[in-house]
């Protein structure tokens, strides 16, 4: 009667439908995690700590988390044979890799007289539920969000099982997976900011709903403040159930702040939906005409952007926040991404790849959809010709320069008037602040006005090709 629970991006015990269903009748449970080798470097750091927390929570209830590395279908089939497993339970996945694996696994398990049961766990709605009146997919966010609100998010939480028990199995040692960085250990900034695991996720939600959500409508755009929930890595690894976040936020009842926060949760659903329908979301533009966009291959510019050395302070602050903490504020993500794809004309896929490796929460759906949104080639995307001016964005959202000074300390003595555009500062002002452009801080790779012109010219070629094509 042993059942197997295959944890993927649902690393929690509370409100975990796969675990809850498997634990019915106090059945012996084999609790399994198979390393997702595609995880980026910052995600691996997070995963190490998340699995440590999950293993401890399971052990406190009398169970054991089995860790394995390798081909999921082979591993699961072998465990099913070895332990006479009658049912495998897992969270339903949106990622093409998992969907393909699930199809093969389903067929393999049938041959072993064992069922594969997949549960809605990582999203609020099943991917096929939210459709237009004609039954088709939504390509635009607002009506999608409206349809979600009309459908309503199911209530009622599934408690964590009180006790867990199951067979002893051979498990890998987490330390042997080498998920943590060594030589150099670059994770100091991540350790200082995050507490991966279910308890950390709940604490983060409680802290956000206790106060900051009241001010979310305005504070969420100010990168110097902790005005957003910072739940994204917890949500990505499924350390907290999206339904729980939704209903706890609704119950907090802080007016407009909550309403906007719920809308952000629906952007997450929208991205998942896009991935469900566009399996190549990470690599191919939804708007096909962008396949022929005249991107530039400039590795030196790409490297400068990655290191936060573009000479545009708000962009450099964002890229350094990402490197140091494994996260970046959403407003600044939009500015940094826009500078890469519009001012530097570097393909959005190169930015997506960098975020994949450096963001703790790098997610096929949200990352792919957001990069396409910024580049203007995605669903309901910002039009390509609407180009963020990073100086104006900096002045508007970091007016007193707290954020830039936090991550670009070499500019800390520059007066506010020039903080977002040091190249416009008179020599005497620069000298007074201890800066020589090109030495302590770079000359801009591309100035905002020049970048804007080049981006518009590139876009014109796309339009011309469309008209002649
Ligand atoms: P909050 O403002 O507190 O929002 C609450 C939750 O809503 C978030 O935790 C997240 O789960 C969800 N959410 C918010 N905004 C979005 C959005 N635009 N799209 C999808 N979900 C959203 N988000 C990721 O989770 N993973 C990614 O890999 C990712 N890559 C991005 C890349 C770019 C270029 C951009 C512009 C955005 C990206 N985002 C990504 C979306 C967004 O920036 C983050 O979800 C958000 O900044 C996380 O911070 P938070 O938890 O404090 O968000």
Description:
The chain is mainly α and 469 residues long. The chain has 3 domains: 3-120, Rossmann fold; 123-155 and 195-277, Serine Threonine Protein Phosphatase 5, Tetratricopeptide repeat (Alpha Horseshoe), CATH 1.25.40.80; 288-468, DNA Cyclobutane Dipyrimidine Photolyase, subunit A, domain 3, CATH 1.10.579.10. Helices cover 49% and strands 5% of the residues. The chain has a 5-stranded parallel beta sheet with strand order 3-2-1-4-5, with helices on both faces. The radius of gyration is 24 Å and the shape is globular. The model has no long low-confidence stretch (mean pLDDT 96). It binds flavin-adenine dinucleotide. Flavin-adenine dinucleotide binds next to helix 9, helix 11, helix 14 and helix 16. Flavin-adenine dinucleotide binds at residues 220, 228-232, 235-236, 264-265, 267-268, 271, 330, 333-334, 337, 355, 359, 361-363, 366-367, 370-371, 374.
Overall radius of gyration: 24 Å
Placed side by side, the strands forming the largest sheet appear as: 3-2-1-4-5
Structural class by sheet pairing and helices: mainly alpha
Distance between the termini: 62 Å
Give the second-level CATH assignment, the architecture of the largest domain.
Orthogonal Bundle
Averaged pLDDT, please? 96
Summarize the amount of helix as a percent range.
Answer: 40-55%
Ranges where pLDDT stays below 50 over 5 or more residues in a row are none
Query: How many domains make up the coordinates?
Result: 3
CATH superfamily of the largest domain: DNA Cyclobutane Dipyrimidine Photolyase, subunit A, domain 3
CATH topology grouping of the largest domain: DNA Cyclobutane Dipyrimidine Photolyase, subunit A, domain 3
From N to C, what is the helix and strand string? EHEHEHEHEHHHHHHHHHHHHHHHHH
């Amino acid at each position: 009667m042993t059942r197997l629970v295959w944890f993927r991006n649902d690393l929690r015990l509370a409100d975990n439908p796969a675990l809850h269903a498997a634990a019915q009748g106090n059945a012996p449970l084999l609790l399994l995690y198979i390393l997702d080798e595609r995880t980026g470097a910052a995600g691996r750091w997070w995963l190490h700590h998340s699995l440590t927390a999950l293993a401890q929570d399971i052990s406190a209830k009398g169970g054991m988390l089995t860790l394995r590395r390798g081909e999921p279908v082979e591993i699961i089939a072998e465990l099913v044979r070895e332990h006479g497993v009658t049912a495998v339970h897992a969270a339903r996945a949106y990622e093409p890799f998992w969907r393909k694996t699930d199809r093969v696994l389903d067929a393999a398990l049938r041959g072993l007289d064992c069922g594969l049961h997949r549960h809605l766990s990582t999203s609020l709605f099943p991917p096929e539920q939210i459709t237009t009146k004609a039954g088709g997919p939504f390509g635009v966010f607002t009506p999608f969000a409206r349809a979600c609100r009309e459908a309503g998010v199911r209530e009622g939480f599934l408690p964590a099982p009180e006790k867990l028990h199951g067979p002893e199995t051979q498990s890998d040692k987490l330390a042997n997976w080498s998920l943590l960085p060594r030589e150099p250990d670059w994770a100091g900034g991540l350790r200082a900011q995050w507490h991966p695991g279910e308890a950390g996720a709940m604490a983060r939600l409680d802290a956000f709903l206790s106060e900051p959500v009241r001010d979310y409508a305005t504070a969420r755009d100010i990168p110097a403040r902790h005005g957003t929930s910072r739940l994204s890595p917890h949500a990505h690894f499924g350390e907290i159930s999206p339904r729980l976040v939704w209903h706890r936020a609704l119950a907090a009842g802080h007016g407009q702040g909550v309403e906007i926060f719920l809308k952000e949760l629906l952007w997450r659903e929208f991205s998942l939906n896009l991935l469900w329908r566009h399996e190549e979301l990470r690599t191919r533009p939804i708007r096909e005409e962008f396949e022929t966009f005249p991107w530039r291959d400039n590795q030196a510019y790409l490297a400068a952007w990655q290191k936060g050395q573009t000479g545009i302070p708000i962009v450099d602050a964002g890229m350094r926040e990402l490197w140091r903490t494994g996260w970046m504020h959403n407003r600044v993500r939009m500015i940094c991404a826009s500078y890469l794809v519009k001012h530097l004309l570097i393909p959005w896929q190169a930015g997506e790849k960098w975020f994949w490796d450096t963001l703790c929460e790098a997610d096929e759906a949200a990352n792919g959809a957001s990069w396409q949104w910024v580049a203007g080639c995605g669903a309901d995307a910002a039009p390509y010709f609407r180009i963020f001016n990073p100086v104006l964005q900096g002045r508007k959202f970091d007016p007193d320069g707290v954020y830039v000074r936090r991550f670009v300390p070499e500019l800390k003595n520059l007066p506010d008037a020039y903080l977002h555009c040091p190249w416009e500062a008179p020599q005497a002002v620069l000298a007074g602040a201890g800066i020589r452009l090109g030495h302590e801080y770079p000359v801009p790779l591309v100035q905002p006005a020049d970048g804007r012109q080049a981006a518009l010219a590139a876009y014109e070629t796309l339009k011309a090709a469309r008209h002649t094509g």
